[in-house]
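Researcher: Structure prediction, please.
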Amino acid sequence: MDRQLTLTRFIERAGSLFGAREVVSCNGGERERLTWRGIADRTARMVGALRRTGVKPGDRVATLAWNHHRHLELYFAVPAMGAVLHTVNPRLAPGQIDRILMDGGSRLIFADPDLRDLVPHRLEVADHEALVNAGPSEPFPELSEWTACGLCHTSGTTGDPKGVLYSHRALVLHALAIALPDGFGIAERDTVLPVVPMFHASAWGMPYAAAMTGAGLVLPGPRPNARRVAELLSAECVTFAAGVPMIWNEVLDELRREPRPLSPDLRIHAGGAPSPPSLVDAWEKELGVEVITGWGMTEISPVGAVTHPRANRRRPGSATAPVRPRDPDGAPDSGSAFGWAEGSSARYSQGTPLPLVETRITDDDARELARDGIGVGELEVRGPWVAGSYFGRDPEDDPDAFRDGWLRTGDIATMDAEGYIRLVDRSKDLVRSGGEWISSVQLENAIAGVGGVADAAVVAMPHPRWQERPCAFVVPKAPPDTYAEHSLRGEVLRELGSLFPKWWLPDRIEFIREIPRTATGKIDKRRLRIAAASPEDGK
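Model: Predicted structure follows.
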């Protein structure tokens, strides 16, 4: 019998087969312990309550909320009744939030108490607990798998955020793919910690994958910092966690200051931005924790590729599944513990496409380039969970994003014969110097590997002869000091000089207290480009 691929199946399965499995919901220092059975029951009651408030299939229901069990219940309740869950980023400016809510056309919003001041007066703020407790649960209706269920806006790093509409079918297939062994490998035995916010790209699909597999779930609550994440990793015996590289760098420093026992099965996913090899190596060599890198976008639901060793990339004698050998003293070994052959460059790539995702590299004339790991061009992608247009628009309205059924990602990359993708840069972030390209990402990764550097970013600055030249912004680990900065500048240039041709080296290195970031944790290169274009007269 043909059954529709809907998210409803996941919450029904979680409640009936894995009902006793814990869902831990944090609110600051407090932790509330629920179960998948309890979440499923509250979800069913919310479905009935939403109907009684007048929410109809196809309506958009917005959230301004952090990672907690009430947001999780809406992840399932709103789609289960045929409506669309519109998650909105509370870190955006109030004007942006207003425009995004206008674009989505939401008729109702759920907002955490500390975020209600961000809600425009025209919208009604729902009382979550009052609705859940208002009446009995109702059966989930049968829906088409093509029914829209989620709306998320892009981070807006190239302009105003654009809406991406997800269907039940897309998110179900995406959850199945990321749970595969060559995805994130999420299973019932796991305890999953999504550090990535639930208002961003469906929290990379982890709440849905956890419900589908019956994995335990730990929701870190509002504004999780490195200390809270480290505490949760240890106290809740987390075995899979995901967040942006910045948070994993901070958690690593926290664990260096205050070591804590971690699950021997812990692995982390660093996504949302390229991960410096130094970060991957530090987690694996110092803590024995596997770092899974990958690539994705809001338009791809969002995961498109994940990094794992293919058969011929494995070290001799390694098992099919990652293993964690240790030396006699109990310390992690040299980093090939996770199956990678020593020196495999693919270890630091963005991985290979998930099943059902097709990728290609094209030149400026839309011609496909050979998969030889050399040809550099724009990465294009298509698949069952890849957007074909932006919300309320036709593909023809955005030719820079959609072409002949392919999503133009704006990422400049290479791809080898095995499908390993290596990002060179975002097209808008490349430094175009004298007709040649300089990769800001490669320079950033190299600078981040210098011992005295805490963080780094590279942008293009105008040049009268070469058009553009690299400008590096560096956050030193030590407090500001003129002599120390002079010494560190020399270290950075020596390291870069050993790795890249001389004309790649930054013309200018600025030391700053912190790298500005967007509301989704990405480097705010627009702000840095403005700073780089100004005279070199301050920090």
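Model: The radius of gyration is 23 Å.
Researcher: Thanks, that helps.
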